[in-house]
Amino acid sequence: GAADLRTPRAVAELRRAAVVVGLDQYVEQVRDLLRPGTRVLASGLGAEEERARAAVAEAVAGHAVALIGSGDAGVYAMASPALEEADERIDAVGVPGVTAGLAASALLGAPLGHDHVYLSLSDLHTPWEVIERRIAAAAVGDFVVLLYNPRSRARDWQLGAALRALAAHRPPQTPVGVVRNASRPGERVHLATLATVDPALVDMYSVVVVGSSQTRVVAGRMVTPRGYRWRA
Q1: How many domains does the chain have?
Q2: Which of 137, 173, 175, 181 is deepest in the core (most CB within 10 A)?
Q3: Domain at 127, CATH number
Q4: Where's the Tetrapyrrole methylase domain (predicted)?
Q5: How many Cβ atoms are within 10 Å of 171's Cβ, its own excluded?
Q6: pLDDT tens digits for range 34-77
Q7: Which residues contact 223 (CB under 8 A, 6 or more apart)?
């Protein structure tokens, strides 16, 4: 995302690191923050487990390592595979970040004002039958739903299936927000409804936010009321 959304703590950890491990495109975004002599281990898409193992091995060897990604390392990102590999020899420090879901929601208005869930539609690691059950549970529970990894060239039908499942439990006028490249060049924000949203507008750079039955559009902004009853 945007450089000004990096937290000061993340910048401090990057500048402290002797070794930086990350996806090549993310490494390029922070290279200007690294100290001279910092060793960089960059790799491409699909090498997440290899990056996690490399970061752990460097830490075991006694180096200060920064394993980087976009958003928050603990949300569909690198913290999980790295900590699965790490043991008590490693002093692991997690640095919170601004997720794609939070960045997208801020652009849409305030869709996360009440209970919400994050769901990934990628079936590369999770069987579609499991994802389908989770979508159904979120639909019945009337949660605001944030859909990650919503649609790719190889997975072009899952988003439509998810939207139909949600539409079975909430009105057709329920707001749906699609944000592509949140806080990045080419940012695009599109507001529709369950009845009108076009999955063709969505790709892997997008986050889809489906409102609950209480979500509404106010002055062009997607808003989910907090639902509190204020007492005098």
Answers
A1: 2
A2: 175
A3: 3.30.950.10
A4: 1-197
A5: 11
A6: 999 999 999 998 899 999 999 999 999 999 999 999 999 999 99
A7: 109, 110, 111, 113, 215, 216, 217
